[in-house]
Design a protein that fits this description.
This protein has helices at about 105-115, 150-160, 220-230, and strands spanning about 10-15, 25, 25-30, 45, 75-80, 85-90, 95-100, 125-130, 145-150, 170-175, 190, 195-205, 235-245, 245-250, 255. It folds into two domains: about 10-35 and about 140-255, M1 Pyruvate Kinase, Domain 3 (Beta Barrel); about 45-130, no CATH class. Strands 2-1-10-9-13-12-11-15 form an eight-stranded mixed β-sheet. Strands 5-6-7 form a three-stranded antiparallel β-sheet. The chain has three helices and 15 strands. With about 260 residues, the protein is an alpha+beta fold.
Length: about 260
């Protein structure tokens, strides 16, 4: 492995509820074979669902409210208290719902808000689901998602507009390696600070990346641009934690 002079970790994020807003973190304790703590710990079933908390299995994201089809979710800002599992939802800076997701009453408070706010997108009553140790990631493997800012700058150049990296739902944002070099790292190691990672696959993008995470507007065609320009729809990589430790913003990246 080699380290460039400037390769470093530029951002850390977790998504406590699938489809809702990210939470920026200054550091994350990453354990071998696990996701980022509290990442996609909860999800919102869109009507009657197949998720069984007593026998949790990975399900396609179509079962849940998600940005690919439910872009109005992006107009909501959320905060999550990991000690109490309390979710607070804001719209335009004002609190519109709050509930402790670990309790039936708390879940009901959030579900009632979503039933009204997302009414046009619903196939039935929304239901918040959870199972200890389960992550509602888009992939079955427990891993973290990495986006390279150099690749983003190349994409911005082609698209002709600034793109918020959070539209790609990364856990780790890195910079200082060549554009799209990350796509060639499948099967290879990455070190971020004291954390050891192994890249397991490239991230195939869907229409969720067309949604601006701040406005909720669908104003780009990212997968089409990727395919037309680079011959694939991949942007970002998934990596498995193989050596645990704490990753912090500013940590050096060796790839």
């Amino acid at each position: 492995m080699t380290q460039t002079d400037s390769a470093r970790l530029e951002g850390l994020y977790r998504y406590p509820v699938k489809g809702l807003s990210p939470e920026p973190m200054q550091s994350l304790a990453l354990a071998p074979g696990q996701t980022a703590p509290f990442d996609r710990t909860y999800a919102i079933e869109n009507g009657p669902g197949r998720f069984d908390p007593d026998a949790p299995q990975h399900l396609p994201k179509i079962n849940f409210l998600m940005l690919m089809r439910n872009e109005r979710l992006a107009t909501l800002a959320t905060s999550f208290d990991e000690a109490t599992h309390t979710l607070t939802i804001l719209r335009d800076g004002k609190q519109v719902a709050r509930g402790q997701l670990s309790t039936p009453l708390g879940r009901k408070m959030i579900e009632q808000f979503l039933a009204a706010y997302m009414q046009a997108d619903l196939r039935g009553a929304p239901k918040i689901v959870h199972a200890d140790g389960h992550s509602f990631s888009d992939v079955a493997a427990k891993c973290v998602h990495i986006v390279n800012l150099a690749s983003l700058r190349e994409l911005e150049r082609v698209v002709g507009t600034a793109l918020n990296p959070l539209r790609f739902r990364p856990n780790l944002i890195i910079d200082g390696i060549a554009p799209f070099a990350e796509l060639g790292l499948v099967g290879k190691p990455i070190t971020v600070g004291e954390v050891g990672l192994e890249v397991i696959k490239r991230t195939e993008r869907c229409a969720a990346t067309d949604v601006d995470p701040q406005t909720g507007k669908r104003e780009t065609a990212i997968p089409s641009v990727l395919l037309r320009t680079w011959g694939h729809t991949d942007f970002g990589i998934y990596a498995r934690v193989v050596k645990g430790g704490t990753a912090s913003v500013g940590d050096p990246v060796i790839a």
